[in-house]
Amino acid sequence: MSEAELRLWKSHAMVEVLLEFACSAMKQDDIAKALARMETLHTATYEGWQQARKALADGQAAAG
């Protein structure tokens, strides 16, 4: 995944969260969940994705 693909994914994921928020009667817990998802999307970075990918590969190598 390139940085441009990550930005595109983040944009699509944000639209999905906003559509879910706009198209339903949400309770307080639902609003908190939507806000947490938005915050996670906002803070996702290409470097963070690379680190997570490396950690996953290292864990699989250690297990295998």
Write a structural description.
By secondary structure, this protein is mainly α. 84% of the residues lie in helices and 0% in strands. The protein is built from 3 helices and no strands.
Task: Jot down its keywords.
64 residues; mainly alpha; 3 helices
Distance between the termini: 24 Å
β-strand amount: under 5%
Describe the main β-sheet briefly: none
Mean residue pLDDT: 86
Question: What's this model, at a glance?
Answer:
The chain contains three helices and no strands.
Topology:
Blueprint: H1 3-22, H2 28-43, H3 46-63
Helix pairs in contact: 1-2
